[in-house]
Amino acid sequence: MENNEEKYAALKLENQICFPLYACSKEIIRKYKPYLDEIDLTYTQYITMMVLWEKKCVNVKTLGESLYLDSGTLTPVLKKLESKGYISRVRSNEDERNLVVTITEEGEKLKEHAVCIPSKIGSCVNLTAKDAEVLYTLLYKIIGNVR
Amino acid sequence: MENNEEKYAALKLENQICFPLYACSKEIIRKYKPYLDEIDLTYTQYITMMVLWEKKCVNVKTLGESLYLDSGTLTPVLKKLESKGYISRVRSNEDERNLVVTITEEGEKLKEHAVCIPSKIGSCVNLTAKDAEVLYTLLYKIIGNVR
DNA sequence: CCTAATATAATTGAATACAATTTTATTATA
DNA sequence: TATAATAAAATTGTATTCAATTATATTAGG
To answer: Which end of chain A is least crowded, N or C, by CB within 10 Å?
Structure first.
């Protein structure tokens, strides 16, 4: 009977690796909320803007590959960002299937108000540079393995 | 002008620690899907059952503390699990504010069909024992820091 | 004892997230 | 060229997720 105690050990929450990933992700995103509220963005809108602050212009497919999100998630996010005036959504002339997302002047300005956010989150997460690097490497290793 | 190249470095997706956490969590949960489909559970229902497989009986507040979820998320999940016959939901006699969730015989049986899942996910995530331990420790360190 | 404060779930509303399907456009092939 | 195959977004439906509010129960303080 005593080996029954171990038979289901792998099903215990404390022995999961995905659960703390899931919990950690949610808890950090929760920490973003007050800062993102100040610039009226959700976390999903924020990471979308990150891509656009860097690339200026991107189609939905490429954006989805960058963010690991599909058009089912991105379409409403992009429509919302468009309604806020931060991006434009225009079909490509070369290939009408492609929707080209371009950052606006307003969207560029928002970057100034967002630039202080990463350090605030960083001090809250509070890892050493070494730990952060180890974590970063492990996470992308997993993403590579899983996909 | 060249220091402008660095001014916004912290806003690049590649310099985030939360984004790979978020992406990694989602991608692993996606990997669970075919296995969870076989036992007709979603990931949220699965981690809820994990707590119940271990504790048999728990109130919503304690469950929420275990899973980092509130009643707004848990109430519909628990109603769904009840409709599937895996749990019962009964108000506590001692304190009518508390809803006591108890696993049923059917819920116990489900454990047998779930016990093979962790190893399948583990081989897909494919970390060494050492890496998994490092990751685990870092994640719970962050959760501790953030909360 | 009575009322204010607190505690616990449930409800509501907005925003994801994703699988599956549909629509439209482009490309490949018979 | 005509049609089949493929590709990109959008749509649909289900299930989270969470902040804020509400409803009900319990506890504490006067």
So the answer is: N
Amino acid at A85: G
- Amino acid making up residue A14: E
Residue type at B119 in one-letter notation: S
Q: Is A85 helix (H, G, I), strand (E, B) or coil?
A: coil
The model's pLDDT over B117-147, given as tens digits with 9 standing for 90+, comes to: 999 999 999 999 999 999 999 999 999 999 8
Q: Residue by residue, what is the 3-state secondary structure of chain B?
A: CCCHHHHCHHHCHHHCCHHHHHHHHHHHHHHHHHHHHHCCCCHHHHHHHHHHHHHCEEEHHHHHHHHCCCHHHHHHHHHHHHHCCCEEEEECCCCCCCEEEEECHHHHHHHHHHCCHHHHHHHHHCCCHHHHHHHHHHHHHHHHHHC
Token pair, residue B133, equals: 């331990």
Quickly state the pLDDT bin for A4 (edges 50, 70, 90): low
What is the C-alpha to C-alpha distance for residues A5 and B29, in angstroms, rounded to an integer? 27
Strand D bases within 7 angstroms of protein beta carbons: 7-13, 15-20, 24-27
Q: What is the pLDDT of residues A33-60, one digit of tens each?
A: 999 999 999 999 999 999 999 999 999 9
Contact check, Cβ <8 Å, B136/A17? yes
Distance, in Å, from the CA atom of A32 to the CA atom of A47, rounded to the nearest integer, reads 12
